[in-house]
């Protein structure tokens, strides 16, 4: 009788030990799932922030582009107007040109040079912003891929928890 109780006690202890091990594995798995879930949430938030920044940068680039196009159009019109005015004048010796016309011509030439310089600067700024936007898009795509990987890991971990709970 005592031997039967000892064997039963031993079997119960073994079963209890097995259950403790299962509980420990389940707790470790739950801990890993929580870590993956937290990482997933952080990555989603980071991705959302990056998307907001990308939209803001895109809007800024588009407004800059519109502004640059308008400025470029105005500059072209001024250049065309000045070219037309210069070509329409008959060539006269320099001594016959009144001083105020020479000053006006010099002023307009200076303005044309300034406008051309500004146009080059604006074009360079636009190119830099386009490069920056392309880099942000690439980073965003990398983060989306990472989110997909973490999401898959989370789904797998949750499946493992369900499987362990069923055991």
Automatic annotation (TrEMBL):
UniProt GO cellular component terms = bicellular tight junction; cytoplasmic vesicle; plasma membrane
Q: Name one GO biological process term.
A: actin cytoskeleton organization
Q: Has UniProt tagged this entry with the keyword Coiled coil?
A: yes
InterPro entries on file: Angiomotin-like (IPR051747)
Protein's UniProt name? Angiomotin-like
Keywords associated with the record: Coiled coil
**According to the UniProt entry, where is the signal peptide?**
none
Can the keyword Transmembrane helix be found in this entry's annotation?
A: no
Q: Which residues form a coiled coil?
A: 2-29, 58-167
Its source organism is Diabrotica virgifera virgifera (western corn rootworm)
